[in-house]
Write a sequence for this structure.
């Protein structure tokens, strides 16, 4: 076991992890943060996306030990039913959620884009969301929701 | 499995010498290979806490790129965009934003997939690889290094790369099954030295055509010393198809890639020469 320190959703943690343990395993199994989903487990689908030190990463491709000293935001740190994040609000309004499995990763990619760039172009939205696959929606409503969230943020 | 997190290159080399451990760069390939059993390291030497390995800077007429610079960092670098355009282009399209944030150029070479996106641009740009082991340091042309098996000695660390800043123009294009998140089925990088309307020198590198990315010396020779025009482009297309024919032989993908390479080659040159044969 190796001891790592990290901040997840603004709370500091000290965890004992195995060297081969992935960040997604530490988040789900040790911290009980089940909002981070494992889709493909090989970095193709983006369902396991979290924000690590201001950058989106696939938590299935990052070892927990590599996250030592990092600040992580998972979907649990973004908003809740009572006060949803503008991206979450827009997803619900537009109907960008169908089965919901890709949604946490989608929301984190969108949030991270808007944190850095409050007025993204359609192309910039497309690039920021290109690492997240959705098998239900056909993407149109997801991209529209991100656009709406960006416009609301501007006001 | 053991895990080491050195804070300096010297420390990393010492650990590598004393243990049978594997260097861990971004991990986007290695973590996967550990899970599916392709890699079974007895220990990991995590290079993530050695700041000097992340640097991208200009030194004495070269761009120096640390092995732990990520594709995202390279894709955001003005220095790279200005002087190593083919590499910059490859960094925009590799994997996905999430993977580009984590994956490193050194890891791309260390893993050395046939489809590694970073290698054809580095080859075309004439990059050298900076290596270090307990025996010392050396700069090795990437093209020479890629002909070695195994690629690296057991305890050799890739410190980084250096690319000459020489005014050559370059471009990169790849063919994937979709635009994002697609492994290259075929990639081409081209660098040219242009003097007026004349192409003085050319380097063409191909990826996903055979076991490793490679530089085609014959193609470079055939296309050098000619006027840059539509005829030059068409000659290049025919030559590059011939190279793919030779490299792939009777492989199932050969007829497809032989045809496809003409389009990918044209696209790689799009920032240098237009379809009509004039300078872009």
């Amino acid at each position: 076991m190796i001891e790592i320190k990290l901040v997840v959703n603004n709370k500091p943690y000290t965890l004992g992890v195995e060297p081969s343990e992935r960040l997604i395993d530490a988040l789900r199994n040790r911290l009980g943060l089940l909002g981070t989903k494992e889709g493909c487990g090989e970095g193709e689908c983006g369902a396991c996306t979290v924000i690590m030190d201001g950058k989106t990463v696939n938590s299935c491709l990052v070892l927990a030990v590599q996250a030592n000293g990092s600040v992580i935001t998972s979907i649990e740190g973004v908003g809740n039913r009572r006060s949803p994040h503008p991206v979450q609000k827009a997803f619900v309004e537009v109907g960008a959620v169908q089965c919901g499995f890709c949604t946490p990763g989608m929301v984190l990619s969108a949030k991270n884009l808007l944190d850095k760039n409050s007025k993204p172009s359609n192309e910039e939205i497309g690039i920021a969301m290109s690492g997240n696959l959705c098998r239900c929606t056909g993407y149109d409503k997801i991209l529209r929701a991100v656009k709406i969230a960006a416009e609301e943020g501007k006001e | 499995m053991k895990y080491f997190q050195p804070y300096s290159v010297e420390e990393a080399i010492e650990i590598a010498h004393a243990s049978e451990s594997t260097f861990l760069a971004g991990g986007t390939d290695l973590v996967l290979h550990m899970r599916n059993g392709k890699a079974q390291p007895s220990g990991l030497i995590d290079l993530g806490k050695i700041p000097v390995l992340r640097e991208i800077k200009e030194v004495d007429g070269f761009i120096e790129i640390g092995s732990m610079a990520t594709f995202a960092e390279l894709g955001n670098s003005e220095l790279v965009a200005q002087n190593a355009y083919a590499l910059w282009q490859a960094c925009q399209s590799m994997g996905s934003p999430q993977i580009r944030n984590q994956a490193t150029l050194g890891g791309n070479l260390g893993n050395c997939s046939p489809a590694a996106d970073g290698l054809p641009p580095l080859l075309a740009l004439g990059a050298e690889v900076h290596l270090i082991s307990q025996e010392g340091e050396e700069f090795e042309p990437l093209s020479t290094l890629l002909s070695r098996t195994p690629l690296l000695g057991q305890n050799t660390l890739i410190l980084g790369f250096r690319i000459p800043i020489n005014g050559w123009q370059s471009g990169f294009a790849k063919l994937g099954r979709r635009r994002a998140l697609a492994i290259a089925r075929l990639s081409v990088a081209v660098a040219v030295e242009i003097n007026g309307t004349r192409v003085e020198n050319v380097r063409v590198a191909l990826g996903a055509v055979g076991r490793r990315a490679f530089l085609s010396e014959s193609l470079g020779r055939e296309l050098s010393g000619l006027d840059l025009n539509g005829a030059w482009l068409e000659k290049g297309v025919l030559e590059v198809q011939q190279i793919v024919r030779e490299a792939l032989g009777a492989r199932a993908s050969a007829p497809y890639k032989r045809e496809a390479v003409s389009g990918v080659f044209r696209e790689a040159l799009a920032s240098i020469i237009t379809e009509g044969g004039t300078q872009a």
Observations:
- The interface with chain A takes residues 1-3, 5, 24, 27-28, 31-32, 34-35, 43-44, 46, 48, 72, 95-99, 101-102, 179-181 of chain B (CB under 8 Å).
- The longest strand of chain B covers residues 186-195.
